[in-house]
Write the structure tokens for this entry.
Amino acid sequence: MARARTVFFCQHCGQESPKWLGRCPGCGEWNSFVEEKVAPAVTAGIGDRKARTPGERPIPLNEVEGADAPRLPTGLTELDRVLGGGLVPGSLALVGGDPGIGKSTLLLQLSQAIAERVGTALYVSGEESARQIRLRGDRLGAAAPRLLVLAETDLQAIEEQVDAVKPTLVVVDSIQTIYHPDLTSAPGSVGQVRECAARLLRLAKATGTAVVLVGHVTKESAIAGPRILEHLVDAVLYFEGDRHQSYRILRAVKNRFGSTNELGLFEMREQGLVEVPNASQAFLAERPTGVAGSVVVASLEGTRPILVEVQALVTPTVFGMARRTATGIDYNRVLLLLAVLEKRCGLALGSQDAYLKVAGGARVDEPALDLGVAVALASSFREVPTDPRTVVIGEVGLAGEVRSVGQLDRRIAEASRLGFARCVVPRGSVEAWRRAGGRADLEVVGVATVEEGLQAALQGLQP
């Protein structure tokens, strides 16, 4: 009889090794290998192949019965937007975020909404007792009779309760605390996380129950455990935000039943998470006017245009090497734009420290912010304030050209709705927009280069 063998797994990426390694060759993490026992696989001999039960035969794709996946409305408009219209029965979703960001609060509110509107919701907690969940439920007003709470970490016990209750929604908080008793490894290890997630996936597909998992994140804000966890699930949602601020952002990075990169905005209050339908107004509520280095840009998150404020501070360095810091925007993109401003516009930024951030705790990675970031840097460097009634949109190339962006009509409509007077946009985009019959209640200025963008957006700046 074959014996179980001992292997080592990386707790970050799931890399397997026959011996312990100080550094993972897959992801480069140090001291991430953990010893686990793996049972040998049982394989059938050649003579046993005929005795196997025949599986489902392949059929042509055009003969497969097609039907739109039904949706379970969650009662939270922002969450429905991110999910693509609501929860899909039989789907498996993963929610990740930093500790204390509000994941448990959001999912308890989701369970309450499903219990009130649709059917039974089962909230399984492996980190808190039922009494602790009741205390949070009293604060959130979660007291629906069909909202059930189970404090359990044994996967087999959870499956038995799901089979007995037959809920519409199951929330598991968190997947790193659940273990299967047949595996000897500790909860949270690669083997336990992979097996428990696979069992819950089969449970969701077999019963039609929507299952939502909570996943811990690493210091790099990635889902802890093997990457296979993200590949198994149907949707991956990240809950972002600064714990010291009230706004929380829910972002979809994977969704098999809807568009990705959708964004929902919530505000953390004493009674729980409250939806913020007007995200642009919330991010621009405390925007200063007449201050150098402050620019309003129009970002597109999925199908939703959002106006955010980009702030820049450029100051002479006191060290031998200039320092660059970016919060809410890609650091490498900031370095690229600094080089373009110095080479193409003649701004001597090599001896200047540059600090950039997106106000309000938002994170935006869209290339359409390039021109706005460049304008903010130039504004702070020359101490020339930007026009407070202007929105800047455009992607910047290495040659200093301003490239076209998509869905310009949505961005201009959002700027017009909030009362802005001018939009500085790429010339190629505005020409296509006008040919398509685009109209706006504000002035649209097309620019072809970064220099033209600086002249159009800043008051009295001569690049």
Q: What stands out?
A: Residues 5-42 form one domain. The longest strand covers residues 304-316.
